[in-house]
Amino acid sequence: MAEMKTKKTAASVADFLNSIPETQKREDCRAIARMMQAATKAAPKMWGPGIVGFGHCRWVYPNGREMDWMQIAFSPRKANITLYLTEEVLKSDLMAKLGKNDCGKGCLYIKKLSDVDVPTLKKLIQETVRQRKAATS
Q1: H or E segment at 39?
Q2: Distance CA 12, CA 111 (A)
Q3: pLDDT digits (tens, 9 = 90+) for 5-39
Q4: Cα–Cα nearest to 72, from 51, 90, 88
Q5: Residue ranges covered by each domain of the chain
């Protein structure tokens, strides 16, 4: 079986966030990090070279394979900021209130924080954490 490429590392989250060249994206990512840390009550950790994750859960697949994973995460990509949420949250009624965004399977893409309703984003983050805790407890 192939080894997971995305693993928790000892790299500095602060150094990673400080290395984001665009000032607005850097500040938006810091704000998202604060929201995710408040929701999980967990310090941020780097997962691979470009994902900031919070909390911990253990996933068990139907075939019995297990893996360590984060409860919630984000990544400042070139085109947007990607937030890793649950599919259920991304299909919820809250999404209609969020503002300008795109979605993929388990991913929310935003260009900048000012494009979205921040209180709604906080609710989406909190609900993702609640669902992940319920799924792994």
Answers
A1: helix 23-40
A2: 24
A3: 778 899 999 999 999 999 999 999 999 999 999 99
A4: 51
A5: 13-136
